[in-house]
Design goal:
This protein is α/β, with parallel strands linked by helices.
Length: about 280
């Protein structure tokens, strides 16, 4: 049944700001370039509720360049640059291996910029890319792993329906010292595996979804010193505003839900997350 105009309007409505956090935190993964606001407005709105820094993700050559420029302009923005896993097979399909090589070379150039604190989001996506694109994804992923180690920067991983292959390639290549699973999507067993390897786990608004009990089990299994929080905005808006536009200022909803799942208070969790994010991204 088609959605009514009233329902469409409700979905587009901007959620109100939550009560501020007492302990400031960072949105460890956002896409300001995809949000319907100016960067200055997004940052001010986030800061007003205790989200005082964001990591802007550039996931293709053009967006990576934009991320670096915005980080140069705004002191509370740090950049991460990479080719998204789905970008690698697209480039190779359209222009052959040379096109992918050229894009990786430009990402390598941008990655050396001091405002770039991470290489990402990279990794594997078996949901949107079929068998014919997986070799390109893996080649790109291995390049980004090597780049993060060469530059001593964090590696930010996109892992969608590809847990086994992501973990295998990290083992084969040797993971960087600071490795972050963005929008962590594994279960409790995977959380324990990541903890044993010292991988950071960043949780997004989907941890609040009713269907996400395995993700909440993973959150319970993860140790305090490896937890991060993110929006992945404009995606994955937390409850009670699922379906509306997401933005960094909504982080408090996710953090408070995380604290409830873990049976702790929000200030204690925020203190851990703030320290972890500083350590992971070397702010």
């Amino acid at each position: 049944m088609p959605m009514s105009k009233a329902a469409q309007a409700a979905r587009a409505e901007i959620p109100p700001p939550p009560p501020p956090l007492a302990v400031p935190v960072t949105d460890s993964h956002t896409h300001l370039d995809m949000q319907d606001t100016t960067v200055a407005e997004a940052l001010a709105k986030a800061a007003a509720v205790g989200v005082t820094r964001v990591v802007q993700i550039g996931c293709d050559v053009e967006r990576a360049g934009w991320a670096v420029a915005i980080a140069e302009e705004h002191p509370t923005v740090s950049a991460a640059v990479a080719l998204h896993p789905n970008e690698a097979p697209r480039l190779e399909a359209e222009g052959g291996p040379a096109a992918l090589d050229a894009a990786l070379a430009e990402i390598t150039r941008l990655a050396a910029h001091p405002e770039v604190r991470a290489i990402g989001e990279t990794g594997l996506d078996h949901f949107r890319t079929g068998d014919d694109g997986r070799a390109a994804q893996q080649r790109s992923f291995r390049h980004h792993i090597a780049l993060a180690k060469e530059l001593d920067k964090a590696l930010v991983i996109h892992d969608r329906d590809a847990h086994e292959d992501v973990l295998r390639i990290l083992d084969e290549e040797g993971a960087p010292e600071r490795t972050v699973f963005h929008c962590f999507s594994g279960d409790a067993d995977m959380a324990r595996h990541c903890a044993a390897h010292g991988y950071y786990m960043s949780f997004a608004g989907n941890v609040t979804f009713k269907s996400a009990q395995p993700l909440r089990d993973a959150l319970t299994a993860a140790p305090d010193h490896l937890l991060l929080v993110e929006t992945d905005a404009p995606f994955l808006t937390p409850a009670p505003y699922r379906g509306r536009p997401n933005a960094p200022y909504l982080i408090p909803h996710t953090l408070r839900a995380m604290a409830e799942v873990r049976g702790t208070d929000e200030n204690t969790l925020a203190t851990h997350i703030a320290a972890n994010t500083t350590r992971a991204f070397a702010f």
